[in-house]
Amino acid sequence: MENFTYLNPTKIVFGKDTVKDIGKNLYKFGSKKVLLLYGKGSIKKNGVYDTVVNSLKEKNIDFVEVSGVKPNPVLTKVHEAIKIAREQEIDGILAVGGGSVIDSAKAIAAGFYYDGDVWDFFEGKAKPYKGLPIFTVLTISATGSEMNSGGVITNEKENKKWAFGSPLVYPKVSIIDPTVQYSLPRNQTINGGIDAMTHVFELYFDKTKNNDIMDEVSEGIIRTVMKHIPVLLKDPKNYESRANLAWSATLALNRINGTGRQGGDWSSHMIEHSLSAFYDVSHGAGLAVIAPAWMKYVYKEDISKWVRFAEKIFNIHDGTDEEKALKGIDKLIEFYKKIGAPTTLKKLNIIEDDLEKIANNAALLCPMGNMKKLEKDDVLNILKIAYE
Amino acid sequence: MENFTYLNPTKIVFGKDTVKDIGKNLYKFGSKKVLLLYGKGSIKKNGVYDTVVNSLKEKNIDFVEVSGVKPNPVLTKVHEAIKIAREQEIDGILAVGGGSVIDSAKAIAAGFYYDGDVWDFFEGKAKPYKGLPIFTVLTISATGSEMNSGGVITNEKENKKWAFGSPLVYPKVSIIDPTVQYSLPRNQTINGGIDAMTHVFELYFDKTKNNDIMDEVSEGIIRTVMKHIPVLLKDPKNYESRANLAWSATLALNRINGTGRQGGDWSSHMIEHSLSAFYDVSHGAGLAVIAPAWMKYVYKEDISKWVRFAEKIFNIHDGTDEEKALKGIDKLIEFYKKIGAPTTLKKLNIIEDDLEKIANNAALLCPMGNMKKLEKDDVLNILKIAYE
């Protein structure tokens, strides 16, 4: 187990009928006027918008709306929101949505106080020194952004989908009401679950040895997500499954699961980001294709870990280590197929000739990964494995 | 799954060679003069005292010592320390030790600002409204007090071993260096592990339904503790086992594991507290006897949970539900015997005639428990099961 420090200052309010508590929480914090940030309007259909707005009004908290945050959220939107936030002199950000909205909120919160371009944080040219307080009402369980300090934004002019992180952008309060996810489109439930699973994979397969307790926690999260996605595909309003999936997705990336590790691998995420920098692919769908391909390419670096994965997740106990490891990866792909996720780049309508371009884009971050240090050619090989 | 709120503000610094970082952390916090609280001097033998004191001196942080905190820590010591803390105008408490020292620090921290008797908090007659900041250097993994907001103190005049809790007494920073536990006496490693396991039992067996994710986490903690105690009994300086046991014990009771539950049962703890209010029994040893007896008495209240326990922890898959449940409890007792823990009150040298007195003491807190609401006669029955 590796040395670590851990501190997570986010307060979670979890459960049925909790969205209406957002006003109370902002009031406690002393907020007077917030930037209300959301996406393309699904919150107006499912009632979340009305509940939030009423809750703010009850506590006389003023708000300015910025909407239209897209999946794979873009830098121009962040710039626009920072400008409005400054003009309107808001004192906090209320992000109502999923990872895209919350990640955008983080960039806005840190960019608000920074004279240069907020993109500098993503390029590593500057570090946030202050952040607006962030509050969230989560509407899809996937990224874990509601309880961590990272965010991913696409610089659409430069085709860079990159991440930044700072302890300053942990949300102060996040409300997770699983019932608001009853109305999620089927593919968003699937992709959200796969995103959460892949976060666990990034941490679990990172070459750390002897971290039994976090391996146990990781395996517990994976089994729980895999148990409840299929239930939700048949019964989207199953509260217990929504709740188990939601809390699992948060725990997958709230840093507890990363304690005592080497920081994770993150190649699958970086490669997927290059993919969705060019194609408007849902992050979870991209990961369903990339992560297993990455596994096939690197499993020999630590075969015992993939044997453990096969045993603990899929009950595979027969065969050589090699056979068990590969069977575990196959079973994962089989699960993805079963729940209706894409499992090849071809199925995502990626043009084969573009693989080189995607690999070149990823190469900006090479060498990447911890399980195996990947160079551009490795990335290209993984993309080829993923292709069909 | 139940609704919950979760916020844990404790910063954990975990790993090899981290004790020396305590001065730096206090300095960052702005501490000038702390109460240095510890036990009966083991920290002087294993070098922790010197490392802590040097670290304080390096940052010019003044300190006043109060030592002699006993296992099953007592109220008179808390009173003594509050008096000294006030006279010396300290601005924080540095607890160096295990649960007894940290629990005492919590009572001192809250009592420091309270005009009445700090015991009022334990009786529920008053609530802490302010607390001195607490910092800890953990020397034995067991209670989880290093990352939670509760404490247990014995009022020795009234034979009451009771608990209190307040968000104000979460430690600000806790340093967990597994290497300082290399020199622990064998029975303390055993009892610490059993305490951690029993915390998980209290939460796991509390009648909550459909909390798969926390059941998984609970089972992961139990398996990890059960794997590493036997290793440590043969090889007390095995770093990986010390580290896994340490982090598991913290996670067992840092409230994550309690999320989405009904608050836990806690009968085993309350009965054990009555036992050690009269007898100087180590808490973990008492729990090794009481918790399995409690299980035998109440398992029919939720037999499916004990079946799950038998399956997930001991791989028991044959027999009726009743048989599996009972076999699981027997296997737990067998494990306790194997590691050298006492498994009957008789072996703890409890006099049979005292069972009534112990049950009467526990009855002050009746009805107790969530799995089954226990009255005094139930407690007496459990003590009788535990006797031999």
Fraction of residues in helix of chain A: 40-55%
Average the pLDDT over all residues of chain A and give the rounded result: 97
Overall geometry of chain A: globular
State the secondary-structure class of chain A: alpha/beta
GO molecular function (chains A, B): alcohol dehydrogenase (NADP+) activity; butanol dehydrogenase (NAD+) activity; metal ion binding; methylglyoxal reductase (NADPH) (acetol producing) activity
Keywords (chains A, B): Oxidoreductase
Protein name (chains A, B): NADH-dependent alcohol dehydrogenase
InterPro entries (chains A, B): ADH_Fe/GldA, ADH_Fe_C, ADH_Fe_CS, BDH-like
Can you give a write-up of this model?
2 copies of one chain form a homodimer. In chain A, 49% of the residues lie in helices and 13% in strands. By secondary structure, the first copy, chain A, is α/β, with parallel strands linked by helices. Chain A has 2 domains: 170 residues, Rossmann fold (3-Layer(aba) Sandwich); 201 residues, Dehydroquinate synthase-like, alpha domain, CATH 1.20.1090. In chain A, the strands form 2 sheets. In chain A, strands 1-8-5-4-2-3 form a 6-stranded parallel sheet, sandwiched between helices. In chain A, β6 and β7 form a beta hairpin. In chain A, α12 packs across α13 and α14 runs antiparallel to α15. At the A-B interface, β1, α8 and α9 of A face β1, α8 and α9 of B. Chains A, B: One of its GO terms (molecular function) is butanol dehydrogenase (NAD+) activity. Chains A, B: Keywords: Oxidoreductase. Chains A, B: This is NADH-dependent alcohol dehydrogenase. Chains A, B: It comes from Tepiditoga spiralis.
